[in-house]
Amino acid sequence: MIKVLLAEDMDMVRGALVALLNLESDIEVVAEVDSGDEILPAARSARPDVAVIDIDLPGKDGLTAATELHEHVPECHTLILTSLGRPGTVRRALDAKVNGFLLKDAPSDKLANAVRSVAVGRRVIDSELALSAWEADDCPLTPRELEILALAARGRNVADIAADLFLSPGTVRNYLAASVTKLNARNRVHAIRIATEAEWL
Questions:
Q1: Total number of domains constituting the chain
Q2: Over the stretch 128-180, which tens digit does the pLDDT of each residue have?
Q3: Any idea where the Response regulatory domain is (predicted)?
Q4: For position 35, which CATH number holds?
Q5: Residue 126: CB partners within 8 Å, gap ≥ 6?
Q6: CATH number, domain at 173?
Q7: Looking at the whole model, is its pTM more than 0.85?
Q8: Are 154 and 128 within one domain?
Q9: Crossing angle of helices 87-95 and 62-72, rounded to 10°
Q10: Is 164 in a helix, a strand, or coil?
């Protein structure tokens, strides 16, 4: 019997997924939660074989929770569900070492089969999603440039960012200018939009 933890914040969707999975003779949902913060404690208690996690959860997002599971409950494999199959999201999921990535509108039998495959350690990812992630451009920005651009995206000015990161304002401006140049952006606002749409921020 494959034991499953299900994390989904929409009650009706969670109930439907639990019912669908429990119809399978070899799958049992042993825990269900509605926020990312509950996933790790529930997994430690129920010891599931697979955690089926919605990517957009209140509290910790699904990918953060999946990373925590990989670290603290390594025997629990992770299958991420999403309604958005954007390349950047897929790349982030793979970077988080999830075992599977499935669109929510996939047929119900596909979900059950994905759970079975993930339970035995196989990687499951929709072929079109995998191709889009493979073809997506790598982020040209360094981690520091991304960090500073993300702070700018939140409305922080150069002086605030400099104070937050213990840098000089001139250094912050240089990082922002480098980001604009690398992204072929017109200005800082355009650079933020490019990076956000590519899901690098």
A1: 2
A2: 666 655 555 677 888 889 899 999 999 999 999 999 899 999 999 999 999 99
A3: 3-119
A4: 3.40.50.2300
A5: 85, 101, 102, 103, 106
A6: 1.10.10.10
A7: no
A8: no
A9: 20
A10: helix
